[in-house]
Amino acid sequence: MRTDLGLEDFTESLRALDAELDARGYQGELEIRALGGFALLAHGLRESGYTADIDTATPDLTPVERAAVLAVAKALDLPPDWLNNDVVMGYDGETTWDDVDALDVMLEADYEPLDLPGALAHVSVSVATLETLAKAKAYACEDIGFGRTPKDADDLMEVCARLGAHELSEAKAILPWLSDPEFSVARDVIRARSEGLGIDPRPSSSAVIADLGLAAGEGVHADHPMGDDAQGRYGAR
User: Fold this and answer.
1) What does the DSSP assignment read for 101-156?
2) pTM of the entire structure?
């Protein structure tokens, strides 16, 4: 199964998905709002091998859409959930636009269209802006229910650098929400990294869990796209 995917691989997958939907007589538009590793790829902040899926901030797929995603996964040797909305955690096993709206409000989310080679008849793709990705990664650093790894801090620093912020004062000027009390850990991460300390200032929840001898999934779920090592209601990897 292919997991070291780059932007060209995902482009191929999306074109195959569009063709599969067409072959199934699909008349609608499958909207993808990418938030996570694929968005970082699209912004040129990552290369192949960073992520194996596209995290989309949208409601649950319809049965036809889900069947098409699985058909593409089988044809191209992709993970069955190569396109998923785990980034939005709905209630009672269902994710709706209300859940998506709540995430959008939390992240002050904004998305921009992604230009892909050739026209897609049934699939539209947009990616989270750098500002949205910065806030998603700042939340990941805060350990609000789903853990933090060094990769989240790396991502936050690289997004800030792309925005022109190389130290905390610059980041706070470009991202005013960073001054809010809830982002104290994110500020500490940016301060520590920009001063060349090379370490995160506080232990992640995953480290605390390890110290307590708890297995992944006892209080924190694994493999959430925002916080890397745990699954909560909001976030993106």
Assistant:
1) HHHHHHHT--EEE---SS--SSEEEEEE-HHHHHHHHHHHHTTSSS---HHHHHHH
2) 0.81
